[in-house]
Design brief:
18-stranded mixed beta sheet; eight-stranded parallel beta sheet; 26 strands; mainly beta; elongated
Length: 314
């Protein structure tokens, strides 16, 4: 059935998908600010959570009210703010939940990491869907801000991560067996100063798809790093990357065994004016689709097509 949210305009920017709010499960609302005619959220079952005028206060509490694979949906209201101070401070541990944030720009729901470097948001259940939420790093040397913990068939759409205080060591980590992960429309603003290892790190994530993204950061290894266990059949396409570290690597396969397609439509900016165009993407077992895969390594210059060895019809 459809979901009617009276008095609330849904989304700015990318429009919702055709079935974005369609569900046969329960719908729960979360908000730290009162909407017109409503109250600030309260984490208590019964009178709260079923409508935007009386929402729950926290995302994690709403997760606890859901049933696995029933089709339940959580709506984070525009202007909602949560602070995460510990590892797995918000833990999506019930399978098959969809969470959608309302609003646009700075009015989107915000999850801010503070207090402890181990503070994190974790997805720990299969078939999790998350859209239109801002995550901010409010403490230096944040270990892993967003973690997909070896679960499958998860979707992130129109997510933003931004360093505010210092740098996250790794902003988004998908650990081994996080297969069939879709990340579409990610915007990542890492700090310009050194301190980060990678913006995104993937460990054994088969059939990963990363598309329509923007990454900026000073990452000592690479902006996108494949580590520990090879990832098979990945696809990275339609992205803009600005690597502000002298490593000058945007996509790196530390395993030298990950497979899949890199490109088309990737645009990479590097820090050093050096012989580094080819090396912007490392990974001998990737296939490169050279339709607008472009690299530039100095201001006031135009980019070059990445100069990997071309296939031949031999």
């Amino acid at each position: 059935m459809g979901v009617n949210i009276p008095g609330i305009h849904i989304f700015g920017g990318a429009p919702p998908l055709a079935d974005e709010f369609a569900t046969t499960g329960r719908v729960f609302y979360v908000g730290s600010n009162a909407v017109p005619g409503g109250v600030v959220g309260v984490d208590a079952a019964g009178a709260y959570g079923d409508r935007p005028q009386q929402p729950f206060l926290t995302w994690d509490y709403a997760v606890g009210q859901c049933a696995a694979n029933r089709g339940d949906m959580i709506v984070l209201l525009a202007g909602h703010l949560e602070t995460v101070t510990a590892a797995n401070g918000i833990d999506i541990d019930v399978a098959g939940i969809k969470t959608i944030g309302l609003g646009w720009g700075l009015s989107r729901p915000q999850i801010n990491f503070t207090t402890a470097v181990g503070a994190s948001f974790r997805v720990n259940a299969n078939s999790t869907y998350i859209r239109n939420i801002r995550f901010t790093g409010g403490i230096d040397n944040l270990t892993n801000a967003i973690v997909v913990n070896g679960v499958t068939d998860c979707v992130f759409r129109d997510i933003e991560y931004r360093d505010v205080t210092g740098q996250a060591a790794i902003g988004f980590l998908a650990s081994n067996n996080s297969d069939r992960l879709l990340i579409d429309g990610l915007t990542y603003f890492g700090a310009a100063a050194a301190g980060s290892t990678a913006c995104l790190q993937f460990d054994g994530c088969d059939d990963l798809q990363l598309g329509h993204f923007r990454l900026e950061g000073n990452a000592s290894t690479s902006l996108i790093n494949f580590a520990t266990t090879l990832s098979a059949r990945v696809w990275i396409h339609d992205g803009r990357m600005w690597q502000q570290n002298a490593a000058d690597v945007c996509i790196n396969d530390a395993i030298t065994g990950s497979t899949g397609g890199i490109g088309p439509r990737l645009f990479m900016m590097l820090t050093d004016n050096a012989a580094n165009i080819t090396e912007a993407v490392t990974g001998a077992t990737f296939h490169l689709f050279d339709d607008q895969v472009q690299v530039v390594n100095l201001v006031n210059e135009k980019s070059l097509a990445i100069n990997w060895v071309a296939s031949t019809d031999a």
